[in-house]
Amino acid sequence: MTKDFNRPKAIAIASHKGGTHKTTMAINVAAKLAQAGNRVLLVDLDDQTNAMDHLLQRMPDELTKPPKTMTHILASSEEERAAVTAKAITKTPWPNLYLIGADTNTSSEAARIQSRSFMAYAELGKALANIKSTSDDPEGFDVVIFDCPPNLDILTTGAIHYSTHVIIPLLSGSKYALDGMFSMLSHIRAVSKVNSGTKCLGCVISGWLDNRKAHTRVYRDVRDVASSFEIDLPLLKHKIPLAASVEVATSEGKTIFDVTSEQEPINIEYSLLCGSISRELGLKHKVTTKGFK
Ligand SMILES: Nc1ncnc2c1ncn2[C@@H]1O[C@H](COP(=O)(O)OP(=O)(O)OP(=O)(O)O)[C@@H](O)[C@H]1O
Ligand SMILES: [Mg+2]
Questions:
Q1: What number does CATH give the domain 9-281?
Q2: Ligand 1 centroid to 24 CA: how many Å?
Q3: CB–CB of 16/160 below 8 Å?
């Protein structure tokens, strides 16, 4: 099966591990790609609703909870779906950056679909069939970014199946992060076989501390495991540093680009990462990072 031409590019930010900086990466990558001029849709697939709460924190009170979420899109009939999807697409405080939120029932709705569908992982793609690319519809999107829950259940698998690209954030220095990477990469490979359009961009190390033995060792091990899968690792050169400014951004409902200067390492590294992503995806508006390094 190949991707529909009228779909936007899509990135699943996925890891079965909890706390590997998935949501932080999804928010900041989405924000930077939007700032470059791309129309970006961030889809929160996690019942914890961290991405949604973060992006809508600074909206007026009545707009902090969207009237419809991914749960309603999944539950809707084919006839209702376009209208439900239109209601679920929510503006954020940033130009070009839109959101489909989650709620506490999103995973149970997905589980309900799983129990009645033979190819349950394809249901997410069907549910999002009304999301068009900007080449077909100026109100469409250049890129969809999925913030996946910390497991390999139906929503993560559905996001990988729908997406043109997958990124695995890996917590720097954590031996445990490595332990499940083999199964993560096997899972992505299995889904990609069903859907030949999905490309794994590999891992991005986050929480990097320079000159720490454990970090360097894990980094080397990641490289070895991933290359044994013969996947390119175009993003492994980017090491997102550990930075206190991430918590500042979270507590204020901002991005790291709002709370740091262009000279700060986390700002530089996220910008460079987004430059690579925009080139890998062939986005219309590239993130330029001239002069950084
Ligand atoms: N580069 C960073 N430096 C320091 N702290 C960070 C960094 N990136 C993320 N964090 C913090 O780490 C914690 C976990 O991040 P996040 O919520 O993005 O992980 P997650 O993988 O989405 O978690 P979950 O599996 O629960 O969905 C948060 O408190 C976040 O603010
Ligand atoms: Mg998360």
A1: 3.40.50.300
A2: 6
A3: no
Ligand nearest to the Cα of 256, by number: 1
* Axis-axis angle for helices 181-194, 154-162 (nearest 10): 50
Mean predicted confidence (pLDDT) in 18-42:
97
Alpha-helical (H) ranges within the chain are 22-35, 50-56, 70-75, 78-88, 106-116, 123-127, 154-162, 175-179, 181-194, 213-228, 245-252, 256-259, 265-281
Calpha distance 141→9 (Å, rounded)? 8
Residue 13 near residue 26 (C-beta atoms within 8 A): yes
Over range 220-243, report the average pLDDT: 83
Counting ligands in written order, the one closest to the CA of 259 is 1
Cα–Cα–Cα angle for 224, 17, 183, nearest 5°? 50
**The pLDDT value given to residue 290:** 65
Write down the domain spans for the chain.
9-281
Instruction: Give the DSSP H or E segment for 166.
Output: strand 165-171
Tell me which residues have their CB closer than 6 angstroms to ligand 1: 18-24, 46, 48, 50, 150, 206-207, 240, 242-243, 246-247, 250
- This prediction has a pTM of 0.95
Q: What is the mean pLDDT of the chain?
A: 90
Residues around ion ligand 2, judged by CB within 5 A, are 22-23, 50
